[in-house]
Amino acid sequence: MIEIVGRVATGSKVTMPKLRDGWHKPPLFLLSLLTFVLGIYLMKEGAGALGPLVRDRFQVTGFADGLGFGWLMSYAIMSGSPVAGAAMAFLDAGVVDRLGAYGMVVGSRFGASFIVLFIGFVYVLRGRDRSTSLSMGLLSLLVAASVQVLAIPMGLWLVAGAHLERWPVPAGARLDDGLRRAFGPLVAAASAALPDWGVFVLGLAVIFGSFKLFDLSLPQLSIKQSRVGRVGALVYRPWVMFLLGAGVTLISMSVSISLGLLVPLGQRGLVRRENVVPYMMGANVSTFIDTLLAAILIGNAGAMGVVAAEMLSLSVVSTILLLFGFARFERWLLAAVDGILASPRNLAAFMVAIFALPLVLLLT
Fold this sequence. Notes:
By secondary structure, this protein is mainly α. The two termini are about 40 Å apart. The chain has one domain (about 35-215, about 235-364). It is globular. It is built from 17 helices and no strands. Helix 5 (about 100-110) crosses helix 15, helix 7 crosses helix 13 and helix 10 (about 240-250) packs parallel to helix 13 (about 275-285).
């Protein structure tokens, strides 16, 4: 993971390790991509076997069910990207329809933001200030929830009408032939050794591991505190922070990484919560690049339409918020965080709500 070092060092600057110190990172990066592709094919191979469980036991038959299911599944594995990838595999196998897959993708964003709050709780247990540690996590959850809620009507319209599926999958995007020849023996061996549902679970684990490998392949970045002032003016510009959040998440392919960095940065005073709302908005848009890649690998036009609808609706809503009324939107979010942290009772009620709501969506 990108390592943030918050020591005070006058005259120091952002440093990068020498090339010879990171010789192993390019191979790790390539390995992470290959394992990601393998995980997608494994999930696609075993997704059909989970149909009775997902469709009949959990009754994921529409958007609301998919939203609750994806939300809770992201909580369980502490990551949203594998859940969104699973939604693509389920859609391709006919386990869920387009609206159910869209609900799972949206729910994966709700659940993935919880990791930032979890990191904050870890800092509290280590004796850090409760308000500073938890505010970033709460703000991350509220940003993701509020922008997603505003984007859902447009997303539902795009998905229900298949408006982004009217163009055929480009021939260049269909990588099935070469990739299947490369990974076919591994997938066949897994299918022979495991039940179909086990193949799906193995694929989910492989994808999760691919993100860990990608995490290790990132260069270490050491940020010294003394020259943060040089970029201080930039963090007050919402568009700069929006693009920064989108860029960091695009590079790391994990919103958990890009948003998780905010907790230690906030603890060291390098960023303030007043400056990170647009950063979080940008991160929540570009985090779907890996899900789009999964849809392309699967070669399903409906899956690509679902991901495109999510990214487009979030981009439109975020642009409108940044251009019109952003200051009011930001003040509302910060006031909500302050209200939750005002008392242990408020915080407890909020925690109960974010676990009860997806359960209600799934069970009803």
